Amino acid sequence: MSPRPTVLAVLLCLAGGASAQDLATTCRIASTYDLTVRPDALVFDRAEPAPRTVRMHDGALATDGRPVALRPDEQDRVALFERQVRVLVPKAKAIANDGVDIAARAVRDEAATAAPQAVASGELDRVLNGRVADIKRRIATSQSTRDWQEDAMRAYAQEIVGDVAPLFANEVGGEAMQLAMNGDLQGAAALRDRVATVSTGGQARVVARVEAALRPRIQALCPSIRELQELQSGLRDSSGRPLNLIESGE
């Protein structure tokens, strides 16, 4: 299994096209684990290789269900690792929430070009606001980074697009038909071209806006994540293998 950019970097993939590899290079950190933040423990898990499960709580460490014997200084590092992760999680969720808002605003701006009547009527805002609220609820209640990884972020973006696409189709289709029926074939063609431009270039513009807004905040968290990498240094699993929850990115 190849290391993925850590969850804090993957947040920039919200709009579905941000380069995860580029972000791994920016922070130079990655992980093959998913993280579940439970009230009683941090649980890291992956399909392979071993250790497949790593559990931390209050200075105690277990891998694949077996406790790891730790020196007092190692217990302190495990406890500090857990504490710092719990501090970072709400910051990550805040970035994710803001990313949803930025993506929604960018979609609205694109819609103002392709379907201005839907914007003017308030229908687009109603649909967008409902979807944004739903996604934010899911982020707020989530305990697992699986809900923040690239695939999840793409799914959220697709949900937003899926909600607004019918509005585009209804307005543009009706307007184009009316123009054609009135004999304005050139106007109908121009309308289709305008929509095609939004469809082909809109996603890239949304991605660019999300990246530009969130990248500095992601970079600001990179030192904290590197500190986690330093805290795990020297720790080993129950079989004596080095514990690499966070790795250096390619």
Written account of the structure:
It contains seven helices and seven strands. It has helices at 7-10, 20-27, 72-114, 116-121, 123-141, 150-181, 185-232; strands at 4-5, 30-31, 34-38, 41-45, 53-57, 60-63, 66-67. Helix 3 runs antiparallel to helix 5 and helix 3 packs parallel to helix 6. The chain is of the alpha+beta class. It starts with a strand and ends in an 18-residue tail after the last helix. It has one domain. A hairpin with a 2-residue loop joins strand 3 and strand 4 (41-45). It has a five-stranded antiparallel beta sheet. Keywords: Signal. Residues 1-20 form the signal peptide. This is YggN family protein.
Radius of gyration: 23 Å
- Structural class by secondary-structure content: alpha+beta
- Arrangement of strands in the largest sheet: 3-4-5-6-7
Share of residues in strands: 5-15%
Q: Please give the number of β-strands.
A: 7
Helix fraction by DSSP (H/I, runs of at least 4): 55-70%
Topology as H/E string?
EHHEEEEEEHHHHH
How would the blueprint of this fold be written?
Layout: E1 4-5, H1 7-10, H2 20-27, E2 30-31, E3 34-38, E4 41-45, E5 53-57, E6 60-63, E7 66-67, H3 72-114, H4 116-121, H5 123-141, H6 150-181, H7 185-232
Antiparallel strand pairs: 1-2, 3-4, 4-5, 5-6, 6-7
Helix pairs in contact: 3-5, 3-6, 3-7, 5-6, 6-7
Pfam families: DUF2884
InterPro entries: DUF2884
Signal peptide: 1-20
